[in-house]
Design brief:
The structure holds three protein chains of three kinds. Chain A is an all-alpha fold. Helices cover about 70% and strands about 0% of the residues of chain A. Helix content of chain C is about 20%, strand content about 25%. The chains are: A mainly alpha, B alpha+beta, C alpha/beta.
Chain lengths: ~325, ~375, ~170
């Protein structure tokens, strides 16, 4: 890095990094706004009510108003809380959410950096979120928060296994961890969802659990644990968790699109090297809408059912799937 | 808790309520937990205590009518019915036939809206948000119908000794018939969306084992009792008003779990619709208010009047002393007895199952606290 | 016990004063006067007879506090109301070990009347706050106390005419 800095004041590499970071932050905030609005509007429609209607046309500015409100609110720190960790937890959750966006290939030319181990990088960075939730639950000094944190850890550890096993199936076929490589392996409509639909289903179920979305939203199960690990957080503390959750959903769906739905591939567009990102976003938001749809339809599972589902069904199925894939690839 | 030290250090106390999303009001439950398992839940009551029984002794009996609506806010008309029933029984007054039919129709509408709210809230307790909005849509129709005739939407003060305040008109009858059709058309949707949902079934099947013996020991009544296979419904067991004139079933289930009481309640919705339909068909003409002395004194003596509230047996026990103020009024509320078995029922359960159990007990806290 | 008559017979066997009353006028079938010594045996009998406890209530009379127990049965219509006068030390034996549901009803009666239920497992305030133990809201002032006779229905003549509680026609 320092060598690059010395050669010129604005080396292209630094510009690229800065530009990527700005884009990532735009995506994070934009996604949170879009998702927040979509979720409320769709939930309203599912429930035969209009959803937000007051601020702007069909309530389109509702999220902006909510954002201002949340920024203006005090972050209340409970008296008995571990104050340093308590303030740190939302940041630990939010900061890593930006990093995976650097390696996600939105289109052939729109990618911050293509690592050889891009997939591993995302998995490693995303795993930090568990730590954030544990820290949040622990530092709040609230039993509901702690229960939520414990649930979250058990759940994330359990569901990472079937997730990684199905990933391995894909990797066995592509032979690369590079996200761009994986997308290119599916060019010409040869999406992996057609060859391994079971893996897609397992992976999608696991991402639901990893992102703590209903019906696997046990860490914040509001009818049991009030709000789980988020119980004590207010103002920006809360909204950072909120944004992080939507960003992790975005990342999880991006991964699903890259691994199984052919990434940016789709009918050709003018300036396809850039504009094919449209296909990528279309697929990602289709998956996100499915997540919203599931959330507003199903009740929550119980904790033992959640773990049973993982250990008794998802893990064995994904193991068998991995074996079959290995045999097929070898042949 | 003194028992903490005796039972080992890994137990901790979780304070659920008085403000908690699934205690439905100001109920507080002190949970002794081991991990996620509830070892000893102890309800703490009294946060909404208003001493209605004392109020009854301090004012003349007509002035208690508004109080009767403020115990169970979901079954105010049925509480109205019980109170005017007990005064009529003690004072040997008979309401007019038309008034009795109107009372039954409005009481059953009241029961329907209570069951609809319960349905939504139970599913909400289990983490599904959408059904409650659907049941509210149905419930809103009932509230609109009742609002037109009673003047209020929740705390009705509609019934009087000898009859009711206002007669129902053709518009009411027409709207109620429309509503019955609408509600019938909605039930298949609830079957698909809620009853048939695999996650929902797994959450409440075999959770909370109510047994007939436990029911006798605790005085359990209402749909939860009928879920254990005992077809005990005051409307049938000790018929009051004009209920004997209607043809309706008492739905029962045999398993005694939360699913059983769920199924019983859902099937009761259809039975209530049947009762209303028959009552509208048979509705007699005539006055809606009997001739009652202006200054009615309660005679010396006592009388009970039991009615079936959406949650079970509601008994007013009124003791009069010849003045217009009751000497003593005892109100037996169903949720009080139903909740008292929580410690026995839920020991050793997961926290999530406790929420499911409390949801299927259909608690109304102001009723318990009175 | 399968019917009201068998209940009466069983109660008479243990020398309990039972009186059959008209359900249409009173809302219950049997009125029972108990001695406090008989209470537990009475409750055990009803427990074996598959009764359930509907409620426990109190009544403050000039002669002292009287506690009423109402039982009913799931299988046949038989609602009975038993009155027990409290002992001299304002206490009664508990029946919370026979009918567990009595636990809360007894605590409530303690709250409202101060009746002590002997051997009750947990006689803490239920509806009232812990610091309101001295407040007994349902105890009446001395001048408004009445005795049992003043609260008993007057039956005019021996032929059993309906009680002339209200002159229905004069309104």
């Amino acid at each position: 890095m320092s060598d690059v800095m010395n050669t010129s004041l604005f080396p292209p590499e630094l510009l690229r990094i800065l530009f990527t970071l700005v884009c990532a932050i735009v995506i994070v905030f934009g996604n949170a706004v879009v998702m927040g609005y979509l979720e409320r509007k769709l939930a309203g429609r599912f429930q035969r009510r209009p959803g937000p209607m007051e601020v702007g046309w069909h309530g389109i500015l509702q999220l902006a108003v909510d954002g201002v409100k949340l920024v203006g609110k005090q972050l209340i720190v409970p008296k008995q809380a571990d104050k340093v960790l308590y303030r740190l937890a939302p940041i630990i959750s939010f900061a890593p959410a930006i990093m995976p966006l650097v390696v996600i290939p939105f289109s052939p030319k729109l990618q911050g950096r293509d690592f050889d181990v891009g997939l591993l990088f995302i998995l490693a960075v995303v795993a930090i979120n568990v730590l954030a939730i544990l820290v949040a639950g622990w530092s709040s000094n609230n039993k509901y928060s702690l229960l939520g944190a414990m649930r979250s850890v058990a759940q994330n550890v359990a569901y990472e296994i079937p997730m990684l096993l199905t990933l391995l199936s894909v990797i066995l076929v592509t032979g690369t961890f590079s996200l761009r490589g994986i997308v290119e392996a599916q060019s010409g409509g040869a999406w992996f969802i057609f060859f391994m639909p079971v893996a897609f289903l397992i992976f999608f179920a696991a991402t639901l659990a990893e992102t703590n979305r209903a019906p696997f939203d046990l860490p914040e199960a509001e009818s049991e644990l009030t709000a789980g690990f988020m119980t004590e957080f207010s103002g920006m503390g809360f909204s950072l968790f909120f944004m992080a959750e939507y960003t992790y959903m975005f990342i999880a769906c991006s991964l699903t699109v890259i691994l199984f739905l052919g990434g940016w591939s789709g009918p050709p567009l003018p300036y396809g090297e850039y504009t094919s990102a449209l296909w990528f976003f279309a697929k990602v938001y289709a998956l996100l809408l499915t997540m919203i749809w599931i959330r507003w339809t199903f009740p929550r599972v119980r904790f033992d059912q959640l773990l049973n589902f993982c250990w008794k069904y998802l893990v064995p199925f994904s193991l068998v799937h991995l074996l079959v894939t290995a045999v097929v690839v070898k042949l | 808790m003194t028992t903490m030290a005796e039972k080992g250090e890994h137990r901790y106390v979780l304070n659920m309520g008085p403000q908690h999303p699934s205690t439905h009001g100001v109920l507080r439950v002190i949970l002794e937990m081991e991990g996620e398992y509830v070892m000893d839940p102890q309800p703490v009551l009294g946060y909404g205590h208003r001493m209605h029984e004392k109020m009854a002794e301090c004012r003349s009996w007509p002035n208690f009518l508004p109080n009767a609506a403020r115990m169970d806010y979901l079954a105010a008309l049925i509480y109205n019915h019980g109170y005017v029933g007990v005064v009529e029984r003690l004072a040997a007054i008979e309401a007019t036939p038309r008034a009795e039919y109107i009372r039954v129709i409005t009481s059953e509408l009241n029961r329907l809206q209570s069951h609809l709210l319960w349905l939504g809230v139970l599913v909400l307790d289990l983490g599904a948000f959408t059904p409650i909005m659907y049941t509210f849509e149905d419930r809103e129709k009932i509230l609109d119908i009742l609002e037109d005739v009673t003047g209020s939407r929740l705390t009705y003060c509609y019934m009087r000794v000898g009859g009711v305040v206002r007669d129902i008109d053709d518009k009411f009858i027409e709207r109620t018939r429309e509503y019955i059709k609408w509600q019938r058309s909605r039930m298949p949707m609830y079957d698909k969306l809620v009853t048939g949902n695999i996650i929902f079934r797994k959450r409440i099947e075999e959770i909370g084992e109510f047994t007939p013996d436990m029911a006798r020991r605790y005085g359990l009544t209402g749909p939860v009792l009928r879920g254990t296979g005992i077809p005990y419904d005051i409307r049938r067991a000790e018929p009051y008003s004009v209920y004997p004139e209607f043809d309706f079933d008492i739905p029962t289930e045999t398993t005694g779990d939360c699913m059983a009481s769920y199924l019983v309640r859902v099937r009761e919705i259809e039975q209530s619709l049947r009762i209303i339909e028959q009552a509208l068909d048979k509705l007699p003409d005539g006055p809606f208010m009997a001739k009652v002395p202006k200054k009615l004194k309660l005679p010396a003596g006592d009388a009970c009047y039991a009615v079936e509230s959406p949650r079970g047996e509601l008994v007013y026990h009124l003791t009069g002393d010849g003045s217009d103020t009751p000497y003593r009024m005892k109100i037996r509320v169903p949720s009080f007895s139903n909740l008292s078995l929580l410690p026995e029922l839920c020991s050793g359960m997961l926290l999530s199952d406790l929420c499911a159990c409390m949801g299927s007990l259909d608690l109304v806290i102001p009723e318990i606290d009175r | 016990m399968e019917s009201k008559d068998s209940v009466i017979a069983a109660l008479k066997k243990v020398s309990v004063k039972v009186q059959e009353v008209d359900f249409r006028q009173r809302g219950y079938d049997l009125e029972i006067m108990l001695e406090s010594g008989q209470l537990r045996a009475f409750a055990e009998l009803l427990r074996t007879g598959n009764f359930y406890l509907s409620f426990i209530s109190g009544l403050h009379l000039s002669t002292g506090i009287e506690v009423s127990y109402q039982f009913a049965n799931y299988s046949f219509p038989c609602r009975l109301l038993a009155h027990v006068a409290v002992d001299a030390d304002n206490s009664l034996p508990t029946i919370a070990d026979i009918f567990q549901g009595a636990n809360w009803h007894e605590r409530e009666t303690k709250d409202f009347y101060g009746v002590i239920f002997r051997d009750h497992p947990n006689l803490k305030p239920l509806l009232l706050a812990e610091d309101m133990e001295d407040l007994k809201p349902l105890l009446k002032k001395a001048h408004s106390l009445k005795d049992r006779d003043a609260l008993t229905r007057v039956v005019k003549n021996a032929e059993g005419n309906p009680p002339p509680a209200v002159k229905k026609e004069d309104a």
